[in-house]
Amino acid sequence: MAVERTLSIIKPDATRRNLTGKINAKFEEAGLRIVAQKRIQLTPAQAGEFYKVHAERPFYGELCEFMASEPVVVQVLEGEGAIAKNREVMGATNPADAAEGTIRAEFAESVGENSVHGSDAPETAAEEIAYFFSGLELVG
Ligand code: CMP
Question: Which GO BP terms sit in this record (predicted)?
Protein backbone atom coordinates (compact mmCIF):
# COMPACT_ATOMS: atom_id res chain seq x y z
CA MET A 1 0.00 0.00 0.00
CA ALA A 2 1.21 3.51 -0.82
CA VAL A 3 2.40 5.96 1.78
CA GLU A 4 -0.16 8.80 1.91
CA ARG A 5 -0.70 12.05 3.77
CA THR A 6 -4.05 13.20 5.10
CA LEU A 7 -5.35 16.34 6.81
CA SER A 8 -6.67 15.94 10.33
CA ILE A 9 -8.37 18.54 12.54
CA ILE A 10 -8.82 18.17 16.29
CA LYS A 11 -12.01 20.19 16.74
CA PRO A 12 -13.00 22.75 19.42
CA ASP A 13 -15.00 20.29 21.54
CA ALA A 14 -11.80 18.22 21.95
CA THR A 15 -9.28 21.06 22.42
CA ARG A 16 -11.63 22.54 25.05
CA ARG A 17 -11.55 19.28 27.01
CA ASN A 18 -7.73 19.00 26.74
CA LEU A 19 -7.93 15.83 24.60
CA THR A 20 -5.21 16.66 22.04
CA GLY A 21 -2.67 14.26 23.58
CA LYS A 22 -5.15 11.39 23.96
CA ILE A 23 -6.30 11.78 20.34
CA ASN A 24 -2.72 12.00 19.07
CA ALA A 25 -1.92 8.79 20.98
CA LYS A 26 -4.70 7.02 19.03
CA PHE A 27 -3.16 8.16 15.73
CA GLU A 28 0.35 7.12 16.73
CA GLU A 29 -0.80 3.75 18.11
CA ALA A 30 -2.41 3.09 14.70
CA GLY A 31 0.92 3.74 12.95
CA LEU A 32 0.09 7.23 11.71
CA ARG A 33 2.94 9.74 11.98
CA ILE A 34 2.15 13.38 12.80
CA VAL A 35 4.42 15.13 10.30
CA ALA A 36 3.00 18.64 10.80
CA GLN A 37 0.83 20.18 13.49
CA LYS A 38 -0.29 23.60 14.69
CA ARG A 39 -2.95 25.05 16.99
CA ILE A 40 -4.89 27.88 15.35
CA GLN A 41 -8.04 29.95 15.81
CA LEU A 42 -10.23 29.90 12.68
CA THR A 43 -12.57 32.74 11.76
CA PRO A 44 -16.10 31.74 10.68
CA ALA A 45 -15.16 32.75 7.11
CA GLN A 46 -12.06 30.51 7.13
CA ALA A 47 -14.14 27.60 8.48
CA GLY A 48 -16.76 28.33 5.83
CA GLU A 49 -14.19 28.21 3.04
CA PHE A 50 -12.78 24.92 4.34
CA TYR A 51 -16.26 23.33 4.53
CA LYS A 52 -17.68 24.99 1.38
CA VAL A 53 -18.65 21.58 -0.05
CA HIS A 54 -21.31 21.50 2.70
CA ALA A 55 -22.57 25.06 2.01
CA GLU A 56 -26.08 23.87 1.04
CA ARG A 57 -26.51 21.60 4.06
CA PRO A 58 -28.84 22.74 6.85
CA PHE A 59 -26.05 22.39 9.44
CA TYR A 60 -23.50 24.53 7.53
CA GLY A 61 -23.95 27.72 9.60
CA GLU A 62 -23.78 25.81 12.87
CA LEU A 63 -20.71 23.89 11.66
CA CYS A 64 -18.81 27.09 10.71
CA GLU A 65 -19.69 28.78 14.00
CA PHE A 66 -18.62 25.74 15.99
CA MET A 67 -15.30 25.38 14.14
CA ALA A 68 -14.51 29.03 14.92
CA SER A 69 -15.71 28.90 18.53
CA GLU A 70 -12.34 27.90 20.05
CA PRO A 71 -8.90 26.84 18.79
CA VAL A 72 -8.41 23.77 16.63
CA VAL A 73 -5.30 21.68 16.05
CA VAL A 74 -4.64 21.09 12.34
CA GLN A 75 -2.23 18.34 11.46
CA VAL A 76 -0.87 16.20 8.65
CA LEU A 77 -0.83 12.47 9.27
CA GLU A 78 1.41 10.21 7.19
CA GLY A 79 1.49 6.45 6.76
CA GLU A 80 0.58 3.53 4.55
CA GLY A 81 -3.02 4.03 3.46
CA ALA A 82 -3.20 7.01 5.84
CA ILE A 83 -6.51 8.37 4.49
CA ALA A 84 -8.49 5.17 5.14
CA LYS A 85 -6.55 4.36 8.31
CA ASN A 86 -7.34 7.76 9.79
CA ARG A 87 -11.03 7.36 8.97
CA GLU A 88 -10.97 3.96 10.68
CA VAL A 89 -9.32 5.41 13.81
CA MET A 90 -11.81 8.34 13.86
CA GLY A 91 -14.94 6.13 13.54
CA ALA A 92 -18.29 7.08 11.99
CA THR A 93 -19.28 10.77 11.75
CA ASN A 94 -22.12 10.23 14.22
CA PRO A 95 -20.61 8.95 17.50
CA ALA A 96 -23.75 6.84 18.03
CA ASP A 97 -22.63 4.77 15.02
CA ALA A 98 -18.89 4.78 15.76
CA ALA A 99 -17.17 1.46 16.50
CA GLU A 100 -15.84 0.80 19.98
CA GLY A 101 -12.34 2.11 20.59
CA THR A 102 -12.53 4.79 17.89
CA ILE A 103 -11.90 8.45 18.67
CA ARG A 104 -15.49 9.47 18.05
CA ALA A 105 -16.92 6.59 20.12
CA GLU A 106 -14.70 7.57 23.04
CA PHE A 107 -14.68 11.36 22.83
CA ALA A 108 -17.27 12.87 20.47
CA GLU A 109 -20.20 14.72 22.02
CA SER A 110 -22.60 14.71 19.03
CA VAL A 111 -22.67 14.45 15.22
CA GLY A 112 -21.81 18.16 15.03
CA GLU A 113 -19.25 18.25 17.84
CA ASN A 114 -17.48 15.08 16.84
CA SER A 115 -13.90 15.82 17.96
CA VAL A 116 -12.03 15.21 14.69
CA HIS A 117 -12.12 15.76 10.95
CA GLY A 118 -10.20 13.68 8.40
CA SER A 119 -9.88 13.98 4.61
CA ASP A 120 -11.99 11.50 2.64
CA ALA A 121 -9.94 10.95 -0.56
CA PRO A 122 -6.48 11.67 -2.04
CA GLU A 123 -7.69 14.77 -3.96
CA THR A 124 -9.39 16.31 -0.92
CA ALA A 125 -6.38 15.42 1.27
CA ALA A 126 -4.06 17.37 -1.07
CA GLU A 127 -6.43 20.36 -1.15
CA GLU A 128 -7.06 20.36 2.60
CA ILE A 129 -3.35 20.05 3.47
CA ALA A 130 -2.56 22.99 1.16
CA TYR A 131 -5.32 25.03 2.83
CA PHE A 132 -3.46 24.97 6.16
CA PHE A 133 0.21 24.17 5.45
CA SER A 134 2.93 25.42 3.12
CA GLY A 135 5.45 22.99 1.64
CA LEU A 136 8.08 24.37 4.05
CA GLU A 137 6.06 23.15 7.02
CA LEU A 138 5.95 19.53 5.81
CA VAL A 139 9.18 17.96 6.90
CA GLY A 140 8.20 14.25 6.80
P1 CMP B 1 -16.49 16.27 9.33
O2 CMP B 1 -15.88 14.94 9.11
O3 CMP B 1 -15.63 17.37 9.82
O4 CMP B 1 -17.19 16.75 7.98
C5 CMP B 1 -18.32 17.58 7.94
C6 CMP B 1 -18.89 17.83 9.30
O7 CMP B 1 -20.22 18.28 9.33
C8 CMP B 1 -18.95 16.53 10.08
O9 CMP B 1 -17.67 16.08 10.40
C10 CMP B 1 -19.83 16.91 11.25
O11 CMP B 1 -19.11 17.56 12.28
C12 CMP B 1 -20.75 17.92 10.59
N13 CMP B 1 -22.06 17.29 10.41
C14 CMP B 1 -22.37 16.27 9.61
N15 CMP B 1 -23.68 15.96 9.73
C16 CMP B 1 -24.20 16.83 10.63
C17 CMP B 1 -25.48 17.04 11.16
N18 CMP B 1 -26.51 16.27 10.81
N19 CMP B 1 -25.65 18.03 12.06
C20 CMP B 1 -24.60 18.82 12.41
N21 CMP B 1 -23.34 18.67 11.93
C22 CMP B 1 -23.15 17.69 11.05
Answer: CTP biosynthetic process; GTP biosynthetic process; UTP biosynthetic process
